[in-house]
Design goal:
This protein is α+β, with helices and mostly antiparallel strands. Helices cover about 20% and strands about 35% of the residues. It contains six helices and 16 strands. The strands form two sheets. Strands 1, 2, 3, 4, 5, 6, 8, 9, 13 and 16 form a ten-stranded mixed β-sheet that branches. Helix 1 packs across helix 2 (about 25-35). The longest helix has 20 residues, at about 40-60.
Length: about 300
């Protein structure tokens, strides 16, 4: 007998909960904020809306289904199953945080604060959860397959990201590395910079776009489902030993970008989750390209 689907509700700690954890009580948090000319009421109201949405979503999960919750900070320790329907309750960025731990499960994005969130990835309201869950578990459900990027190190470490992957120094230092197309050993350039960013069409609305605008780049940013990536080097430094001729480019479906570390240490993380980063040391190399895995967003 096959297992019933499991609804996995992904959420994150609210700003209000973080204030209570820091200051102990509502009154003390309100007092501290008042001393800074701020009010706690707006934060508390957003928390109430978030809790109401979580309650409504949980109540709408079909009765025969199994269900569980996972907080954002626990995602790297949570084991998703092939029969899961992932319901992300919160902001757009929370979908990206969850995406790197999935392997094709359908994802429903529920917006807890319409009008405040862009709603690019959390497109639905809590009241629509029941219908969306049934649709997600049905054969031939309507999903948008969003392109993801991946980094694979020479020691088999692997990292997925929905928006972008960052490679760079762990602090405010300069990273030294060699960068070039994958599969061409003699190609590439030694560089010193504050890091490299490789992003998708979904990421083209965020960090990647800011670099693109700052450069006035002629590159065409991809759409979320396009099988294409764009990459930029941040603040490349010219010197007798390092160059600046390879600071931006595109990667197609079969293309790869290879980076070989020439510093003591570099970190690689996706979608801002620096707490779950790969670490590379001198001489290691890593390949970046389009992943075979997509984020299947229920529409």
């Amino acid at each position: 007998m096959s297992l019933a689907p499991r609804a996995v509700l992904v959420h994150r700690t609210t700003e209000y909960e973080e204030l209570l954890a820091r200051h102990g009580t509502h009154g003390q948090a309100a007092f501290v904020l008042a001393g800074r000319g701020r009010s706690i009421e707006e934060v508390a109201e957003r928390h109430r809306r978030n809790e109401q949405a979580l309650t409504a979503v949980a109540a709408a999960v079909p009765l025969r289904w199994r269900r569980t919750r996972v907080e954002r900070s626990d995602l790297d320790r949570f084991l998703f199953g092939p029969e899961d329907v992932v319901v992300v309750v919160g902001q757009d960025g929370l979908v990206a945080n969850a995406a790197k731990y999935l392997s094709g499960q359908p994802v429903v994005g529920v917006d807890t604060d319409p009008g405040r969130n862009p709603g690019v990835l959390v497109r639905h309201r809590a009241r629509d959860t029941a219908a969306l869950c049934r649709a997600a578990a049905s054969p031939g459900s309507r999903v948008e397959a969003l392109t993801m990027t991946e980094a694979v190190a020479d020691d088999t470490q692997r990292l997925l990201a929905l928006n972008e992957i960052y490679l760079g120094p762990p602090g405010h230092q300069t990273a030294r590395y060699r960068i070039g197309p994958d599969g061409v050993p003699s190609a590439g350039e030694s560089q010193a910079s504050s890091g490299v960013l490789v992003g998708t069409g979904t990421g083209s609305t965020g960090w990647l776009r800011s670099l693109w605008l700052e450069r006035g780049s002629p590159l065409r940013l991809p759409a979320p489902s396009d099988p294409r990536l764009v990459w930029f080097v941040r603040e490349a430094w010219p010197s007798p030993a390092t160059g600046t001729s390879m600071v931006a480019g595109e990667l197609g479906l079969r293309d790869g970008l290879r980076l070989t570390v020439e510093s003591d240490r570099m970190v690689v993380f996706g979608d801002g989750m620096e707490s779950d980063a790969l670490e590379l040391t001198w001489g290691q190399s890593i390949r970046l390209g389009i992943s075979d895995t997509t984020l299947n967003l229920v529409v």
